[in-house]
Write a structure and sequence with these properties.
Layout (H helix, E strand, L loop, with lengths): L7 H9 L6 H21 L3 H16 L7 H8 L2 H12 L35 E10 L9 E6 L7 H4 L8 E5 L5 E7 L4 E2 L5 H8 L5 E2 L2 E7 L6 E7 L18 E2 L13 E4 L2 E3 L14 H8 L1
Parallel strand pairs: 1-10, 1-11, 8-9
Antiparallel strand pairs: 1-4, 2-3, 2-7, 5-6, 7-8
The structure holds benzoic acid and fe (iii) ion.
């Protein structure tokens, strides 16, 4: 037996975990322990601070419900989700259009709507149209591609916030025809604050951050034999376009609604965006994230 200090306890913990059967679990837990110990030494963590951290994580857990995933939100505002997204894309055999975060407001089972439908039940501001093609990386149109879209309203709330999850709005699914084209009507979503009424919001405020996401429309696009694409289109004139709280914006995803004679719905300002999907190995997905209701079910 040897006496342990703040350094040798790390070796001892790694030694005890050395018989972990699953090699990937061992790799992840070894690194987690090494980095956690190094972090505590780095900031010279006090017992009070350690307890504050434990209390904070406990509150994050308590804030989770079937409609809210506070841990994903924590990962998002710390930039971890963006790092995992980037690492995941780096491993792909081939990449399509730029990806972005799935976020916590994705829901499976949104209605399949006829092409061109309005996704907002009662629009109170100018309607716009979003249109384009879904192709492979060679530009060949992909028929039967499913594009799922969801966004906030013109007031800046998702249906889960404005309707407490009782019914869906501002979301819809569309299936492309032979030409790979898609289009739908919507309203320009308002940029919004991430949910600030929980422990993650309190942390964000204490960091002097605004907690806003710039106006955007989420898209999850899948087609047989292709890598699923999780992305979003961001409106470039939003005041927070350069300071997204969850680090989801890329230049390639910045759009503008403008008069467009080529739009399939004349008379409405339009955003034209063509999406490219990469070829995938069967079962390969570009999805980093999940419908939070599914996460809760899996944890039960
Ligand atoms: C969203 O885009 O819906 C979102 C993403 C991360 C955190 C909060 C919201
Ligand atoms: Fe969003």
């Amino acid at each position: 037996m040897r006496d342990l200090d703040e350094f040798t306890v790390t070796d001892e913990a790694l030694e005890q975990m050395a018989r972990t059967k699953n090699p990937r679990l061992k790799e992840i837990m070894d690194a987690a322990v090494r980095h956690l110990h190094a972090f505590a030494r780095d900031v010279n963590l006090t017992p009070e601070e350690w307890l504050t951290g434990i209390q904070f994580l406990t509150q994050v857990g308590h804030a989770c419900t079937p409609l809210r995933q506070e841990f994903i939100l924590l990962s998002d505002v710390l930039g971890l989700s963006a790092v995992v997204n980037a690492l995941h894309d780096k491993k792909a055999r081939e990449l399509g259009s730029q990806s972005s975060l799935l976020g916590p407001f994705y829901r499976e089972g949104a209605p399949l709507l006829p092409m061109g439908a309005q996704i907002v039940e009662t629009p109170t501001v100018e309607e716009i149209v979003i249109y384009g093609k879904i192709t492979d990386n060679d530009g060949t149109p992909l028929p039967n591609a499913l594009i799922q879209v969801w966004q906030t309203s013109e007031r800046g709330g998702y249906d889960l916030q404005e309707r407490q999850g009782e019914s869906m709005d501002m979301r819809g699914n569309f299936m492309t025809g032979a030409d790979g084209a898609y289009h739908f009507r919507t309203v320009r979503p308002l940029g919004y604050s991430i949910p600030m009424d929980g422990p993650v919001g309190t942390m964000v405020v204490s960091q002097g951050r605004h907690g806003m996401r710039p106006s955007h429309i989420h898209c999850l696009i899948g087609a047989e034999g292709h890598r699923e694409l999780v992305t979003a289109l961001y409106f470039g004139d939003d005041p927070n376009i350069d300071s997204d709280t969850v680090f989801g914006v890329s230049q390639a995803l910045v759009v503008e609604a403008k008069d467009d004679p080529a739009s399939p719905i004349p008379g409405l300002r339009a955003v034209h965006y063509d999406f490219r999907l990469a070829k995938a190995a069967p079962g390969e997905s570009g999805r980093v994230g999940a419908d939070p209701t599914k996460l809760m079910k899996a944890a039960e």
